[in-house]
Amino acid sequence: MYLLLADWLITLIEKFTLIAVIVTTALIVAMYSTLAERKIAAFLQDRIGPDRAGPFGLFQPLADGVKLFMKEEIIPATSSKLLFILGPMLAMITATMTSAVIPWGSTIDIGGRAVPLQIADINIGVLYIFGVVSLGVYGIMIGGWASNNKFSLLAAVRGASQMISYELAMGLSLLAVLLIVGDLRMSVIVNHQIAHGWNVLYQPLGFLIFFICALAECNRTPFDLPEAENELNFGYHQEYSSMKLGFYLFAEYINMFISGVVMATLFFGGYDIPFVNEAAWGSHWWVGLISFAVLMMKAFGFIFLFMWIRWTIPRFRFDQLMNLGWRGLLPLALINMLITAAVVLWLNTK
Amino acid sequence: MQSLTNRNKQVERKPMTFAERMYLPSIFKGMAITFSHLFKKNPTIRYPEQKRTFPSVFRGVQILNRDEEGRERCTACGLCAVACPAEAITMEGAERQVGEEHLYREEKYAAKYEINMLRCIFCGLCEEACPKDAIYLTQTFAPSNYAREGFIYGKGDLLIPNPVTEPEAYEKAKGAIGKEIK
Fold it and tell me: Is A43 within 8 Å of chain B by CB?
């Protein structure tokens, strides 16, 4: 009985530490993504970028954070105050919540205990991610609605319709992966890829669709219509100031990081190192850390790709966006899923 | 209608081909172009640390000249103020007293001489108008300031260092003019 309690307590501590570490990691990565974005934008445009705050501008995110905190906080008189405050909170919470089911690495051995680097290995992992990601649109919707500003509302409506349209194609492209793996559990998906090769090899089209939809879900260029400055002034966060605005901007970068990790997990073998059999290394404590580092490298690769795309491609028009989503990606994803299903069925009955 | 240059181009309004409608090839092309810029040398000059060299005809902040004995050349004739199209120059003349011969070259001098650097357009007409070689445009420009008052340059800001008492500073300031002066 006591042993059980002790075990339970240790698990609790373990999980809380893991949550703290992962949320902190996500926040730091998001923080430095803002610097990386500006630096990459600068390099792609033959500029230098921010380099005044600290060596290579490394303290720039801190300076930005301090600046945002120091700014005057304005809540418009005509806004609905509760929802106005709730908006950025929701955006931030949903952005960080997704990290719960992602396997961040293999297991770490601490004192004979195998500690899995995953907060919750629930059996509907993928569904959970999708549930939380689609909640993310509420941050934009509520913020835009509560601002009581035409531009914000327009942006919020755009954001909602865009997310709903692209979630369909995203889900369908993911179904094909699930057909191959046969499980919704994130850890099983990763282990399957370690055993049978990365999913992107079986599902290149599925990955492409998923990637394009992820861009749309993160409101990144070329699908950044909810914050199209030249059409909607500043989009859904136009009335926001100070750290509430900071939360919205921050949530976008966390979303970007998380979607990079999700893509790495679903299509690029998660924490798997290509062409290396990590299982042969035995169960040292550093194996888990290396696997975590590998996953981070893959995620950073995706973040770079997101930024690279942002500073290359102009924004879609809204009708083009809807056209691409409903008439392009959705049928493609459907066909992709049907073909995968047929092949899987054929292989299984053979 | 006949066009003026014959360089106008007819806009193509053909419907896009399938490959074009896929977007992806042109997207990859564009991304390759931007990626190549990652490795290009950037032309940035990091201003406060690095400064670009100006051509010798560059017109910057004015300097009030002295003669070889360190006396102010300006006689407050007002020709520069008249020539100034931006009306940036104001001055007040005064008569030289006995015992001030080592300060001012001629019997009249500028007790107050101000140029508003926010008004000045750096055309160089003051330099051309001056019959006494008292004002020159240098190859430096007015640094930024927090207050408008800071841009009104008085004699203290404009006068060249005295060649007799501070020869080094004088040579440096003379070098900043970038051309031969009297």
Answer: yes
pLDDT score of A1:
62
Of A48, A311, A312, the CB nearest to B42: A48
> Rounded distance, CA A236 to CA A252, Å?
13
CB contact under 8 A, A46 and B42: yes
**Which ipTM score applies to this complex?**
0.75
Residue A142 is given by DSSP the state H
B28 contacts in chain A (CB < 8 Å) = none
Helical segments of chain B, H only: 18-21, 24-36, 79-83, 125-129, 155-158, 167-177
Mean pLDDT by 10 residues, chain B (182 residues): 76 81 84 88 84 83 87 90 92 89 88 91 91 87 85 88 83 75 66
Cβ count near A252 (within 10 Å) = 23
Q: What CA–CA distance (Å, rounded) separates B123 from B143?
A: 18
d(CA A328, CA B16): 15
Say what the alpha-carbon torsion angle B15, B19, B25, B30 is, to the nearest 10 degrees: -10
Give chain A's domain count.
1
Give CA A8 to chain center in angstroms: 31
Residue A258: what are its φ and ψ, rounded to 5°? -65, -40
A113, two tokens: 């205990």
Two structure tokens written together for A46: 């033959």
Omega within 30 of 0 (cis) for the link into A222: yes
Q: What's the domain range around A312?
A: 2-348
* B48 in reach of chain A (CB within 8 A): no
Nearest one of B181, B165, B155 to B94, comparing CA atoms: B155
Alpha-carbon distance of A208 to A200, in angstroms, equals: 9
A181 SS3 class: helix
Domain definitions of chain B by residue range: 62-177
**Rounded Cα–Cα distance for residues A221 and A128 (Å):** 26
Other beta carbons within 10 angstroms of residue B152's beta carbon come to 17
User: CA-CA distance, A79 to A83, in Å (whole number)?
Assistant: 8
Fold (CATH) for B62-177: Alpha-Beta Plaits (3.30.70)
Tell me the sheet residues that pair with B112: B92
CB contact under 8 A, B30 and A45: no
State the average pLDDT over residues A57-82.
86
DSSP assignment of A231-247 equals HHTTGGGTT--HHHHHH
Side-by-side strand order, sheet with B89-95: B89-95, B108-116, B152-153
The Cα–Cα gap between A91 and A149 comes to 19
- Whose CA is closest to A248, among A141, A139, A96? A139
Strand partners, B114: B90
Degrees, nearest 5: CA angle B173-B178-B182: 75
